[in-house]
Design a protein that fits this description.
With about 250 residues, the chain is mainly α. The chain has one domain. About 85% of the residues lie in helices and about 0% in strands. The protein has 13 helices and no strands. The chain is globular. The termini are far apart. About 25% of the residues are buried.
Length: about 250
């Protein structure tokens, strides 16, 4: 893992890209620190009527802005993606919000994946080195199917998946379409929940419990775990019984 660092140290072009990336990340971080409250649930709840009026006047502009904000939040692993999904579901409705968040979340995840692969390999290797070996071994056995399962099971944080997968040999195109499919069920749940929120004031006060009770949230979590485990269990059973049927 030390070779890329040595190469970058002797390559002015790579050094310039790293400096530009550092400036970009620092700039985005500064903007988020300075203006992050503008996308907080408290701020949005206070300006609910203004937001709805803006959506009616300039729908394309608002959708584009929401897409870029979501990509930035997920691409830089900033907090608030889940809450942002709920707000988008409330603001745009289920179907428009579903398309927006589905593609924005995958785009952001791919941005994080590429940043880890091409710019932060050494740092990510030091931070997630223990998980990298496990991921590589699982990918070797299961292929892209393993990533699909990780996306379905809400156990490993998505920012960890994005970062560690960037250090593996998986293709970017494979990462994209598998993530798109694997994250889709969770996106449906969040967007449906957001579309049922009566107003942002309720969402601010109760969070996701404004839509789902605690028992329903537990049931949803169990359903996602089973959804992710089922394909792995099925594949294991097929591999287990295949030799016996061939004899």
């Amino acid at each position: 893992m030390s070779e890329p660092s040595a190469e970058s140290a002797g390559n002015p072009g790579i050094r310039k890209r790293m400096i530009l990336l550092a400036i970009l990340v620092a700039g985005v971080g500064l903007l988020y620190w300075r203006f992050g409250h503008l996308i907080s649930i408290e701020y949005l709840a206070e300006r609910e009527a203004e937001l709805q009026a803006l959506q009616e006047d300039s729908p394309v502009l608002v959708i584009g802005a929401a897409f870029l904000i979501y990509v930035t939040v997920t691409g830089l692993s900033l907090p608030g993606a889940a809450l942002l999904s709920l707000v988008i579901g409330w603001f745009f409705g289920f179907w428009v919000g579903l398309v927006l968040v589905s593609f924005a979340s995958t785009t952001g995840a791919t941005v994080a994946f590429l940043l880890s692969r091409y710019f932060f390999r050494d740092a990510m290797s030091r931070r997630f080195g223990d998980r990298l070996t496990s991921f590589d071994e699982s990918l070797e056995r299961e292929g892209a199917f393993y990533l699909f399962t990780l996306r379905l099971i809400p156990v490993v944080p998505f920012f960890v998946i994005n970062a560690v997968m960037g250090l593996t040999r998986i293709r970017t195109s494979t990462f994209w379409w598998v993530s798109q499919l694997g994250m889709f069920p969770g996106t449906v749940v969040y967007l449906y929940a957001g579309s049922r929120v009566p107003n942002l004031q309720s969402l601010e006060e109760k969070g996701i419990e404004a839509v789902f009770t605690p028992s329903q949230l537990i049931q949803i979590t169990i359903a996602f775990v089973l959804l992710g485990v089922f394909p792995l269990a099925t594949k294991w059973l097929l591999n287990y019984f295949r030799p016996a049927t061939n004899q």
